[in-house]
Amino acid sequence: MSRLLHTSDWHLGRTLDRHSREEDFDAVLAEIVGIARESQPDLIVHSGDLFDSSRPASRDLMRAMRTLDELAAVAPTVVLAGNHDSPAYFEFLGYVSGPSRGRGLFFVDQLRPPHDGGVLTFDACGGEQRIRLAVMPFVHPNRFWQHSSVFGTTYADYAEAMRGLQAELMAALREGHDPGRDILLFAAHVFVAGARPSRSERSVDLNEAYATAPADLPAVSYAALGHIHAPQPVGGVPFPARYAGSPLQLDFGEAGESKSVVIVDAEPGRPVRVMPRRLSSGRQLAHFTGTLDELRAMAPQFDGTFLKAVITGEEPDPLLGRTVAEIVPHAILVNAAPAREAHPGAVLDADPADEPELPDALRAYLAGRGMSGSAAEATVAAFAHLLTEIDDETPPPAPAEEMLQAALEHTWTEAS
After folding, report:
1. Which 8-state DSSP code applies to residue 227?
2. Quick count: other Cβ atoms within 10 Å of Cβ 315?
3. Which of 146, 187, 279, 325 pairs as cysteine with 224 (C-beta 3.0–4.6 A)?
4. Is residue 323 within 8 Å of residue 311, measured between CB atoms?
5. For the chain, what is the mean pLDDT?
6. Is 13 exposed, middle or buried (0-12, 13-18, 19+ CB in 10 A)?
7. Whole-angstrom Cα distance, residue 183 to residue 130?
8. Fold classification of 2-279 (topology level)
9. How far apart are CA 37 and CA 249, in angstroms?
10. Which phi and psi angles does 84 have, rounded to 5°?
């Protein structure tokens, strides 16, 4: 029997309203390593968004590599680049820490042809079985943009292209397939239509129009998916496909969610056994709405949590935050605000902490200017790509810099 450990969406470097989550990340990553050592998988898959930023801080790079090294000591570990990750960073990490250096770490930096890194093969059960894994890191819609197109990529273009890419991977998986020995798996960082987001994902990359249809997923024993932070199975497919989800509650859109990794036991030619393993490390996020007296009565249950409190029945008070903090001294108070009554003339009707992301703000602006549909979505997608793009080239020198350099190279000397 072969065993897979599936984890995803660590988002190392994520903070919560300027509160560090490093303590929580250290705790939950240690728990994941402990589960790996206990369960002894034949393969470990991380299905994308290792980091929260395309330019992670050095301490987050170290945190990631220490943990991945510990996992790779248990079993070969494959890490896909998600929409938050930098392909350039992944290429570098693969160069210094990959199989060419004798390590069991495989960084999938970008979509590759099936016969050039798109399908990976691993022995299992002492060589009696073989795991064949097709890998699809995040594929941006701009990949399919045609210069001849006025409006860029359309929804139909994206769906058709993704369908073709997945079909190519499936065809490669089946080449030389031995039904008595091989287990076929698919790992992808992709938004599948019908999946339930947590509201903490980057919304511009969860547009339903650019979703992959469940029926387009390759027919494998198990599909290990990343991108959605709420752990969940994918409906509409005749085989197990699952989002492992984020290991921590990343923001208050995930408050109350149970987090997990997934253990999958597989035998050639038989249905797999999928076993989500709940994670218990990391501080929880909690909401409270009610009066100060009600908060006093419930205060002990918020010990050790990140708390967002909305207080009802109080007049405006600049010291409300201090009062709430005194009532729940063992909670990390992220926000405390009085409840607001809706007013027809109010200009601000949302919590300032819920300010939309820049791509969403651009989409709203374009709609206000009369642009919608595929043209607007292509513009927003291009803008989002520019926000996260890594500039790997030396920036061009400024004109003043060029003039100074020319003067230094051709110094003027007085004629004798």
Report:
1. S
2. 6
3. 187
4. no
5. 85
6. buried
7. 6
8. Purple Acid Phosphatase; chain A, domain 2 (3.60.21)
9. 24
10. -90, -15
Q: What percent of the chain has pLDDT over 90?
A: 62
Q: Are 5 and 43 in contact (CB under 8 A)?
A: yes
User: Can you tell me the distance from the alpha carbon of 45 to that of 47, in angstroms, rounded to the nearest whole number?
Assistant: 6
Q: What is the pLDDT of residue 103?
A: 78
Q: Match 């709420």 to its residue by tokens.
A: 230
213 by Cβ neighbours in 10 Å (0-12 / 13-18 / 19+) ranks as middle
Please give the structure tokens belonging to residue 224.
């290990």
Q: What is the pLDDT of residues 71-104, one digit of tens each?
A: 999 999 999 999 999 999 999 999 998 887 777 9
Digit-coded pLDDT (tens) for 122-150? 999 888 999 999 999 999 877 765 544 44
pTM flag (> 0.90): no
Strand order in the sheet with 306-311: 285-290, 306-311, 332-338
| C-beta separation of 234 from 192 below 8 A | yes
345, two tokens? 């003339």
Q: Cα Rg for the chain, rounded, in angstroms?
A: 25
